[in-house]
Design goal:
The protein is an alpha+beta fold. Helices cover 66% and strands 15% of the residues.
Length: 134
Amino acid sequence: MMKGFFIRCGITGFAVLLASQIIPGIEILSFGSGVAAVVILSFLNAIIRPILYLLSAPFILVTLGFFMVLINAFLLYLVGGIVKGFLVSGFWPAVGGAILISIVSGILNMWVSEQGRIEMVTRSPSGRKIRHIN
């Protein structure tokens, strides 16, 4: 279980690094601040984000999911305020970063199981079959 969490942290780290390279207004000033930002963001995503999603479920439904982007942007902006050397310079960079990080993390996390194994899902005539690679 912990192996999967660490792999997901690595995926989040890659997504945050990519966001800092693509989105103007998101900067990582040092390796240490980048690692701290990823660890805190991973913790917030694992513990706090589900609670915020639950509490704001009516808003998420009414906005057809857009409010989830705002929650993710808020958490990214919060990490920028907590970690010195990780800068998120405003609302729009936070929204852009949240969207990019969500897309990259979502795509890459599709292949990682809770146990940290890489999965490939195939379909057979008898139903869904999961083949583990690793």
